[in-house]
Amino acid sequence: MTNVFPVLKNDRLLRALSREPVDMTPVWMMRQAGRYLPEYRETRSKAGGFMDLCTNPDLACEVTLQPLERYDLDAAILFSDILTIPDAMGLGLYFESGEGPRFRKTVRSQADIDNLPVVNAEKDLDYVIKAVTTIRHALNGRVPLIGFSGSPWTLATYMVEGGSSKDFRRAKAMLYDHPDMMHALLEKLALSVTDYLNAQIRAGAQAVQIFDTWGGSLGHQAYQRFSLDYMAKIVSGLIRENDGRKVPVIIFTKNGGQWLESMVESGCDCLGLDWTTSMASARARVGSKVSLQGNMDPAVLYASPEAIRTEVARILAEFGHHEGHVFNLGHGITPEVDPQHAGAFIDAVHEYSVQYHENNGFRA
Amino acid sequence: MTNVFPVLKNDRLLRALSREPVDMTPVWMMRQAGRYLPEYRETRSKAGGFMDLCTNPDLACEVTLQPLERYDLDAAILFSDILTIPDAMGLGLYFESGEGPRFRKTVRSQADIDNLPVVNAEKDLDYVIKAVTTIRHALNGRVPLIGFSGSPWTLATYMVEGGSSKDFRRAKAMLYDHPDMMHALLEKLALSVTDYLNAQIRAGAQAVQIFDTWGGSLGHQAYQRFSLDYMAKIVSGLIRENDGRKVPVIIFTKNGGQWLESMVESGCDCLGLDWTTSMASARARVGSKVSLQGNMDPAVLYASPEAIRTEVARILAEFGHHEGHVFNLGHGITPEVDPQHAGAFIDAVHEYSVQYHENNGFRA
User: Which of A177, A257, A319, B184 has its C-alpha lying 20 to 30 A from B66's C-alpha?
Assistant: First the structure.
């Protein structure tokens, strides 16, 4: 496959991420290719399981494109799992039905950490890298493709616990009892994530997002040292321009609204916000340093289309007449949401946002 | 039983809640009477189940006092459940082993809400009120007794969902689709909580805490209107002085660190903080308006006593040479914690905090 791609037609997302003028606010949804869509469930049931979709570039491409067929979305996001890196490190990722992800091996000692390889993504995660190029070609310039990875701390929690956790007991005990050990693990993960995201960018990803799903479970000081510092290290090692265009980097720490000022210092282009943060106060706090992504509570999608539209209008008004807003949910869309409600959400963002971008110098 | 109680010997908690000088920082732990203690598990297994402890004033008293026998704590907290009010409203609280709390009836329509009575605590929750007086006598002036209730929004989530929830789907759909209905429910709950806490104060509680466990699941605007406003209403209706002494009110919204400024406006005396908030920045933000309670990550108790002591010292240093700090965990102590680690935590608070209270004019 060639890495020469069709010209991008809808670049709202890339413009907004760089705080350039747009005609309307771009919108995408975390987990937009997912279980709430019947067509996704059908592809998945034919394929076998979740990882069968992830490891097959054609199927990953198929489900990545499904929400674009239904909705007027401004971005595609690579369909994959956040735990591909620990799996490539040899931990043996598997899923048990009704349970979260599990690993056959855990990482609990210095020897365990010493034995972990740094991932060479083009070799060890070639199925993801091939999926990126396949999707980018299939998009045919419709919208940009977002690549992603889990953050080092988020990956570390699963590796130490052996799966999901409520209180991150073992990971936090390692952090407090053996900080050097935790730093050694995070260092290997930061190198691996950097390589992984750069491989995705070379393969066709036009923006990348670091999902720091569990950074917000840390104390404020531990967050800076054990999550944010490693994301900053990754950001500084990323390819920031490709094919003559900037490749924006989004950092999303769920429950990280108290730490926006220090997150800006990571050098990223955009901060993802969950719904506990006021868009107006976030914009005042970060000024013109970064763009902001978010931040509707995904549970609003359980309410009526009318209530959804009201909430979209409220968030747009909060952000106001400024550039640099990418509309999104504050976390992934949930499996029980009615697909028509997701459509009402996306349409409302476009419809109501035009007024905030008039006379802003935008030219298509 | 008489409501004339022995003189209070250790009033560090009450002084710190009112930002008065103390000789060392007072400390207690949310859920300090609980499953991590073998003596608690023994009492509970003899009694039958959790609710058999709550509904029997003598057993509730016994387990409330257990942690005081082991540790040099500066407060006792009433042993009870946060869901006593919905149970008294007729919803039928029960517990299934391995599951969270459940209700036989749910509240999902205007008719359901209309049918709910406002609780008359002295009649409908007499077992709690009796437990308060029993405990207060048994304490014999050792330390003050804290009473508590769940917040209206927190109680409402369980009542609408019928139990615990991950995404509060039904409660949030009601909030966004039928805000008037949700307000009617919260109004009845606010009246009930006010009556409940006042009954606890009359029965002997010397301070009260409102546990807003799920306020932090709301968007920042929804939090103000659907959680904080009702807590403010409760605060304004509480008995604030009893037996010649101020009865301080603590508000604790888990995950509420972004909203401290508006929480202060509720009129409470103290804000509880989880561990995601920096003590130093919280103090700067609230100034001298309220005291602060918290905020060690309970997962630190899984680390070694040495690491626990280091973290206690760090938090004390962050708060610095000021009055108005009640040390606590940022959430309840978890069942798997080694009781010796809890002891190391409590001793460290007293040992390390003396230096911050020297020359502050304190006289015992």
Answer: A177
Per-residue confidence (pLDDT) for residue A99, from 0 to 100: 77
The shortest C-alpha distance from B240 to chain A (Å) reads 31
Q: Do B297 and A218 touch (CB under 8 A)?
A: yes
Q: What SS3 state is found at B212?
A: strand
Burial of B95 from C-beta contacts in 10 A (0-12 / 13-18 / 19+): middle
Q: Find all residues with CB under 8 Å of B63, minimum gap 6, and list them.
A: B33, B40, B43, B44, B53, B79
Give CA–CA dist B236/B252, Å, rounded. 16
Q: How far apart are CA B104 and CA B163, in angstroms?
A: 9
The answer to whether residue B241 neighbours chain A at the CB level (below 8 Å) is: no
Sign of CA dihedral A308, A314, A317, A323: negative
Contact B255 A276 (CB under 8 A): yes
Total CB pairs under 8 A between chain A and B = 103
Tens digits of per-residue pLDDT, A180-229?
999 999 999 999 999 999 999 999 999 999 999 999 999 999 999 999 99
The helix/strand/coil state of A81 is: coil
Q: Whole-angstrom Cα distance, residue B254 to residue A267? A: 30
Cα distances (angstroms) measured from residue B268 to each of A20, B28, B249, B255? 45, 19, 5, 18
B179/A301 Cα distance (integer angstroms): 15
Q: pLDDT tens digits, residue range B60-74? A: 999 999 999 999 999
Across the beta sheet with A145-150, what order do the strands follow?
Answer: A76-77, A145-150, A207-212, A249-253, A270-272, A291-296, A325-329
Rounded distance, CA A170 to CA A172, Å? 5
B69 touching chain A per CB within 8 A: no
Instruction: Give contacts of A331 with chain B, Cβ < 8 Å.
Output: none
Q: How far apart are alpha carbons B319 and B286 in whole angstroms?
A: 12
Judge contact between A66 and A40, C-beta under 8 A. Answer: yes
Residues B80-109, mean pLDDT to the nearest whole number: 93
Q: Which residues between 167 and 206 in chain B have a beta carbon less than 8 angstroms from any beta carbon of chain A?
A: 167-170, 172-173, 176-177
Residue type, A31: R
Q: Do A275 and B219 touch (CB under 8 A)?
A: yes
Residue A364 has pLDDT above 70, yes or no: no
The model's pLDDT over A166-176, given as tens digits with 9 standing for 90+, comes to: 999 999 999 99
Does residue A230 have an active-site annotation?
A: no
For A99, left (φ over 0), alpha (ψ -120 to 50), or beta?
beta
Q: Out of A12, A15, A19, A44, which one is annotated catalytic? A: A44
Q: How far is C-alpha B357 from the geometric centre of its chain's CA atoms?
A: 26
**Helix, strand, or coil (residue B294):** strand
Q: Which residues in B lie closer than 8 A to residue A219 (C-beta atoms)?
A: 275-276, 296-297, 330
Contact B304 A223 (CB under 8 A): no
Q: How do B325-329 and B291-296 pair as beta strands?
A: parallel
